[in-house]
């Protein structure tokens, strides 16, 4: 008879007390359910016993605040009667006297709303665009219309063209320079034919390399006065390293090798690249010394080649007094200088009154200020040294064809956007890349709030915990 | 629980909540450079909602412990556990702005991910495995009774083999003979193969653990035995099949419930640490 499996038989196989027997699966589930929360509390308790509150940290602190990783109370200030210990501006201002952005601003954000910490080893100055656009997207001021664009939301969006290009105003400099000519091949140099490159004339102030066509001695009378940085704007607002900006080209460093200041064939020396008065004094002194050493030249023979037609033929020779001789030759030399040598680059103004004065036959001209523009964007900062990977003409594209002094060769915003955009492979394009919020020039000294041993203890704990952090 | 058309309302509601949350996150999203999303009003809203969903999902255990509570049907709680628990992950990701933050929040995030993933895994198993079990182990019994039933199967098999040796039969000339000698292959098979297999309830290898190999083994055994013992062999084969099905049921049962050993303990740790995080976040 084959084996049968009836309901009765199956029921008889069941041990009715099975639910009283130990059930391993349920036992495991119970003990694991007890162990996991207990382990979590032990983990928190272990950190609590060590006095290490970092387990509750919202994230790694910035490098500047890394020393406070174990000292939450440095920023999270307890207030009497309140549960919360959130950070406040007063905690930030204890160390940082963040100067106001603009006196006419209608709203001052809290420190933490822009400089959010606990985001890793970052620079806190690298704030989000929203930190700036919360005002600049619809800029309002307390005292009338704003002096800046009032609707800027991003560099790659509605940021206007740079002001100097937007205005359409010509270059304010008065030094006549023709970039097209200067970049031609086979120019006559001091020792033969030369090909100029940008760095022969334009270098940052920190550059210590010798100049190809200059002596390296700057003219103190010209260089400092040449800057025409926007008046009234605190220069510290956009402070930059000495390698950031191109220094004004000076005659001594960049021109003197080719543009000689000789004034008479009797002298190999050149007049100083200085004011007309000093040049005049130099020339007179040179001629006086010369005629004193060469009195025979007071008797001048007639040069037939210089006789003018329809004019009476002068005597075969004439004898001058030293004073006459010096005055005559000084006038000739200065005429050469003012009308040709200096005028080649400078704008000279001859005063009509001085010219008509009876006792001043050779009036000295006034030289127009060079008005070098050293900062085309006074409200922003730029660093040439950070852009040295690209050639000058990559950005200053119009240089090779520019023939007018009035040409402004500053690259437009589109050139910047080629690299500084929001793409994943792009360079930084947030506001802080070019603009500064707090004026470092107004920063006040804040006395130290912390004891070094405490900070060192905190740092030691950090090193123990995070050996790979690199701090 | 099978995920069928009865879940449609929950699915639609969850999709709507997720969609609205995603849109709100896209609008109020805080860039990485502007700090944490969790501290903003919208971030806090996401955090509170996500944690509330977690607590609701966690209360399923309490609801099961006290089935007499009149707080909705168990099926509703189970569906809510499934869908709201799943929704808690994206909501907490929105709350955190997709950043893990510090040690506690990173642990919380990992716990949540593990709990939700293990829950999803469990839901998938609970959806498919009961059907598989019905198909592959129709002779299933109560899981806790399995050892007891297996012991009975071993006893029954031993008695069958013992009884076969005591039986008699007539030969072709009508002479009555004892089959004890002829039952020797059966006894050897039982001692060497069947009993060891029946004693090891977890055995997954060997000729008897595989249905087709077992069928072949029993067919060979029959060829060695007189027809009088073929019924006994059939019974032994039936016992072997039942044991094999119980072993299969045990394996499926472990899959069906094993994930709970991860899901439940870590859920409790998650809720506890989540409460600590909420208190700390409100303070700092």
Textual characterization of the structure:
- The complex is a heterodimer of chains A (471) and B (284).
- Chain A has 471 residues and is mainly alpha-helical.
- Chain A contains 15 helices and 6 strands.
- Chain A has helices at 7-13, 24-49, 89-93, 111-114, 129-136, 163-166, 179-182, 223-226, 251-255, 276-293, 322-341, 352-356, 392-395, 413-419, 452-465, and strands at 187-189, 192-194, 299-301, 317-319, 348-349, 366-367.
- Chain A has a two-stranded antiparallel sheet. Chain A has a two-stranded antiparallel sheet with strand order 3-4. Chain A has a two-stranded antiparallel ribbon with strand order 5-6.
- Chain A is elongated and about 160 Å long.
- Chain B has 284 residues and is mainly α.
- Chain B has 2 domains: 5-137 and 259-283, no CATH class; 143-256, no CATH class.
- Chain B is built from 9 helices and 2 strands, in the order αααααββαααα.
- Chain B has a two-stranded antiparallel sheet with strand order 1-2.
- In chain B, helix 2 crosses helix 9 (260-283), helix 4 runs antiparallel to helix 8 (230-258) and helix 5 (146-165) packs antiparallel against helix 8 (230-258).
- The longest helix of chain B is centred in the middle third of the chain and has 34 residues, at 103-136.
- The radius of gyration of chain B is 29 Å and the shape is rod-shaped.
- The chains are: A mainly alpha (471), B mainly alpha (284).
- Chains A and B meet through helix 2, helix 4 and helix 5 of A and helix 4, helix 5, helix 8 and helix 9 of B.
